[in-house]
């Protein structure tokens, strides 16, 4: 058996419309799928032009979580204790950082040079952590 790609990642959000505003309006991602499945809203975004790799912006609840567990996840997410983690790349970390600061994005770490590249941290409105990096060429 050989895997050949990671096609979807998932993070919890408390409000899917607010998540769209952040991920599309502030980060510049694009809407991939917005479909009412009856039991849940399947809402995904992706890096522009890369429709094969989606991020599911999922509200805690059925079918994956029973009501009590969903409430616990919402509570932990609100406290910033249960957020997910995303890693994205950019061609210019300093420029991207300045653009996100100008848009009022919650910055957790300023750009810093590391052995693998230059990266910085942000947080979405729900406590999910995001690292944005400009990766060095591997030798």
Structural commentary:
The protein has 139 residues and is an alpha/beta fold. Helices cover 24% and strands 37% of the residues. It has 3 helices and 8 strands. It has helices at 16-26, 67-78, 93-102, and strands spanning 8-12, 30-36, 41-46, 54-58, 85-89, 106-114, 117-123, 129-135. The strands form 2 sheets. The protein has a 4-stranded mixed β-sheet with strand order 1-4-3-2, covered by helices on one side. Strands 5-8-7-6 form a 4-stranded mixed β-sheet. β2 and β3 form a beta hairpin. The two termini are 29 Å apart.
Task: Walk me through the topology.
Blueprint lengths: L7 E5 L3 H11 L3 E7 L4 E6 L7 E5 L8 H12 L6 E5 L3 H10 L3 E9 L2 E7 L5 E7 L4
Parallel strand pairs: 1-4, 5-8
Antiparallel strand pairs: 2-3, 3-4, 6-7, 7-8
Mean pLDDT: 94
Describe the sheet with the most strands: 4 strands, mixed
Task: Give the radius of gyration.
Answer: 16 Å
Helical fraction: 10-25%
Strand content: 35-45%
Instruction: State the secondary-structure class.
Output: alpha/beta
Q: Strand arrangement, largest sheet? A: 1-4-3-2
Principal-axis shape: globular
Q: What's the end-to-end separation, in Å?
A: 29 Å
**Helix count from the secondary structure assignment:** 3
Unreliable residue stretches = none
Overall number of strands: 8
Order of helices and strands: EHEEEHEHEEE
């Amino acid at each position: 058996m050989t895997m050949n790609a990671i096609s979807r990642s998932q993070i919890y959000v408390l409000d899917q419309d607010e998540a769209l505003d952040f991920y599309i309006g502030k980060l510049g991602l694009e809407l991939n799928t917005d479909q009412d499945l009856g039991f849940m809203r399947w809402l995904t975004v992706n890096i522009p032009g890369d429709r094969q790799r989606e991020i599911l912006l999922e509200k805690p609840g059925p079918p994956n979580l029973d009501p009590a567990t969903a409430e616990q996840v919402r509570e932990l997410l609100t406290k910033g204790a249960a957020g997910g983690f995303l890693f994205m790349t950019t061609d210019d970390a300093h420029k991207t950082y300045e653009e996100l600061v100008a848009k009022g994005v919650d910055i957790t770490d300023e750009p810093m040079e590391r052995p693998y590249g230059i990266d910085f941290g942000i947080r979405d409105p729900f406590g999910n952590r995001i690292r944005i990096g400009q990766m060095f060429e591997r030798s």
